Amino acid sequence: MLIRPWKTFGEGPHTVKSGAFAGGSTATLDSGDIRFTHNKRGDIVYAIILGWPAGDRFQIRSLGTASPLRPGVVANVEFLGCVEKLDWNQSAEFLTAEKPSAKPCDFAYTRKIRFA
Questions:
Q1: What is the pTM assigned to this prediction?
Q2: Please, are residues 21 and 92 in contact by the beta-carbon 8 Å criterion?
Q3: N or C: which end of the chain has fewer CB within 10 A?
Q4: What is the pLDDT of residues 21-71, one digit of tens each?
Q5: At 14, is the pLDDT very low, low, confident or very high (cuts 50, 70, 90)?
Q6: Side-chain half-sphere CA neighbours of 4 within 13 A
Q7: pLDDT, position 5
Q8: Assigned superfamily of 5-10+29-115
Q9: CB under 8 Å, gap of 24 or more: what pairs does 76-83 form?
Q10: Pairing relation of β-strands 57-60 and 74-79?
Q11: What is the 3-state secondary structure (H, E, C) of the chain?
């Protein structure tokens, strides 16, 4: 599978150091740290969220309608690894999406965002 970066590599307050002795830099990653890829056609963006939120929702600033990245209108949001139907909303500031009742895994959580 070919990984394609989206308009930006990601968003979030934390950075990850490179190199063999930088192992502790990933310990601070949380739900505000998100990385993006997209499919070949460009109509689907995968938002890889690097931490589980404390609240009941995930928020993605880069996918808000007023974002300087101009992401477009979101048509559908899925949570990979989850069969629950979860609510979501795209506002000017964020794409906000409910989190499932249980974590589908232990490390990173992927949202599949389809654009209209």
A1: 0.87
A2: no
A3: N
A4: 555 666 678 899 999 999 999 999 999 999 999 899 999 999 999 999 999
A5: confident
A6: 11
A7: 85
A8: Golgi alpha-mannosidase II (2.60.40.1180)
A9: 76/113, 76/114, 77/111, 77/112, 77/113, 77/114, 78/111, 78/112, 78/114, 79/104, 79/109, 79/110, 79/111, 79/112, 80/104, 80/109, 80/110, 80/111, 80/112, 81/105, 81/109, 81/110
A10: unpaired
A11: CCCCEEEEEEECCCCCCCCCCCHHHHCCCCCCCEEEEECCCCCEEEEEECCCCCCCEEEEHHHCCCCCCCCCCEEEEEECCCCCCCCEEECCCCEEEECCCCCCCCCCEEEEEEEC
Beta bridge partners of 38: 45
Q: Is the pLDDT of residue 1 over 60?
A: no
Read off the amino acid at residue 65: T
